[in-house]
Target: D-alanine--D-alanine ligase
Amino acid sequence: MSQTQPEAPARKPRVALLFGGRSGEHAISAATAAGVLGAIDRDRYDVVPVGITRQGRWVVAADDVDRWRITDGRLPEVTADDGAEVVLSLTQGEKALRVLEPGEVPSVLGDVDVVFPLLHGPFGEDGTVQGLLELADVHYVGAGVLASAVGMDKHFMKLVLAGHGLPVGPYEVLKPHEWTADPEACTDRVAALGLPLFVKPARAGSSLGISRVDDLADLPAAVEAAREHDPKVVVEAGIVGREIECAVLGGRDGERPRASLPGEIVVDDTHAFYDFEAKYLDEAHVQLSCPADLPDDVTARVRDLAVRTFEAVEAEGLSRVDVFVTPDHEVVVNEINTMPGFTPYSMYPRMWEATGMTYPELVDELIRLALERPTGLR
Ligand SMILES: Nc1ncnc2c1ncn2[C@@H]1O[C@H](COP(=O)(O)OP(=O)(O)O)[C@@H](O)[C@H]1O
Ligand SMILES: [Mg+2]
Model:
């Protein structure tokens, strides 16, 4: 790692950790906050945890790893009782978090040097919060507005990747009104993809609302399940292949992005695919192996494709690129996640660990990248 120091203010840079939020991945985001709170270097940074409730209220949150961990399947949740409400000033150059207490003049909690949005899913990983941070003119970790939005939307993600000549699997999009207006026509269209199908909300994550369909009779229920998360649905041809992931980190000083050694997800037969339970609640039936046991040339192709995917959507900071490696060693991109699972046990940090960067070093590197890059158009 290069030793360039970020421009040194008289005090330590203050990092606001943003977590929770309005998406179905609220609890996972809180668990990520627990990981980062436990790992961030307190000698180097001041830390301000800011929780976002499911209703979208920002509150001062406990600086307490145990409060936000997932313990015995209990999912943590940010509530309005966690602390006073805060807002981020949108006045250019102010960069202040203001505390709002009913009946009192708003007080300033402090200037924010960098925001670390540990948010997954809609209203967090999709460019909306990034837009707010752009308006506030603060430095923040990770992808900007467009890359976040493209990474969130499986329809546009495929268009952008295919537009760059990158390999994506066959799919169909069911727009919000198409399914309700003519389900038969939709069924005919997706039937041409063959079986099995994977039916997904276009903009969700953590496998929420995703079903594997082995019989077209099950399609309506699968589409309805996806529509509970997003009126736009993506239906994909099932791909037979190993699930391989690769962690990408933005380049320093104009260098190209860096790709980790790939990892592999192996889910046993108790799950039809890598679903929500398998991801967070049923670790016994999932094996994350890192580095993945792949021939050297396949490893090299996965890493190269991961970097090109990151570049295609113009991601920044971090992204995890998930691919399928077919039995004849073809590599197909499944998706890019601009805010991947980021607990110390998640694949993203584990892949960097295997590549020689520890979790605390990774947190530090991401904050440095964010402080180094200019705010505004870049
Ligand atoms: N086209 C596909 N072929 C085979 N398996 C798939 C396909 N799409 C998704 N899956 C399975 O479903 C899981 C979740 O799908 P994914 O698109 O990664 O959604 P999410 O954004 O919620 O992680 C994948 O990790 C994989 O196990
Ligand atoms: Mg996925």
Observations:
- The chain has three domains: 14-141, 150-168+240-338, 171-237.
- Residues 169, 198, 200, 204-207, 210, 236, 238-239, 243, 273-274, 322, 334-335 surround adenosine-5'-diphosphate (ligand 1) (CB under 6 Å).
- The domain at 150-168+240-338 is CATH 3.30.470.20 (D-amino Acid Aminotransferase; Chain A, domain 1).
- The mean pLDDT is 93.
